[in-house]
Amino acid sequence: EVFLVQSSAEVKKPGESLEISCQGSGYRFPTSWIGWVRQRPGKGLEWMGMIFPADSETRYSPSFQGQVTISADKSITTTYLQWSSLEASDTAIYYCARSGFSGYGMDVWGQGTTVTVSS
Amino acid sequence: QSVLTQPPSVSAAPGQKVIITCSGSGSNIGTNSVSWYQQLPGTAPKVVIYDNNKRPSGIPDRFSGFKSGTSATLGITGLQTGDEADYYCGTRDSSLSGVVFGGGTKLTVL
Predict the structure, then answer these.
(1) pLDDT (tens digit, 0 to 9) for every residue of chain B, 110 residues total?
(2) Which site among A6, A13, A20, B14 is 20 to 30 Å from B60 CA-CA?
(3) Cβ contacts of residue B25 below 8 Å, gap of 6+?
(4) Is A38 on the interface with B (CB under 8 A)?
């Protein structure tokens, strides 16, 4: 069975850096796109970007380009989402998801990581 | 403002049918397959329709999908209270080389 397991909730202060993770299992990790999706409190899904672990090709939404960094480590089947300087507006639940269907349809989702940024 | 347009909310009685619409453009729905996601309160999204009209294993045939041109629809028949959730459409956008979602539709089963 295919799983994506995300790291635990984080509480950070504005200006701090953060990296959250998403570990895949049960499938050929390098050859599936993994995307990251933001969901702010009470709001809808926002696609942030995605990575193809085999060659680390990365694509970002224009809204998130330069705001976050997506990376992957094939050796431990893990992808990462990183911020260098958090803002209060980054408070949200972040999901990783595998694009296993055509049209980048997401067939497997992680459980979500809650990030709270508050002074 | 989402790239794909969905109604904010729909409602129907138990046992009835509801249709949720998703409108896009030639660079997204017009040229790529559409998926639909169900998000129950407090949980991660789950795909209920992929490739416009296919159901993953475990999704009942009460759920159906249809695409025509630059629009797609999700139909749910025999509504149950357990179907109350937020529903999102999503697809690839060829001009963005990424994914776009609709703003989400809240389904209420009265």
Answers:
(1) 889 999 999 999 999 999 999 999 999 999 999 999 999 999 999 999 999 999 999 999 999 999 999 999 999 999 999 999 999 999 999 998 899 999 999 999 98
(2) A6
(3) B3, B70
(4) no
B15-101: CATH, from 1.20.1260.10, 2.60.40.10, 3.40.30.10, 1.10.10.60: 2.60.40.10
Task: Burial-class residue A61 by CB neighbours within 10 Å (0-12, 13-18, 19+).
Answer: buried
Q: CB B88 to CB A49 under 8 A?
A: no
Contact between residue A78 and residue A23 where contact means Cβ atoms under 8 Å apart = yes
Of B51, B56, B99, the CB nearest to A47: B99
Tokens of A10: 């984080």
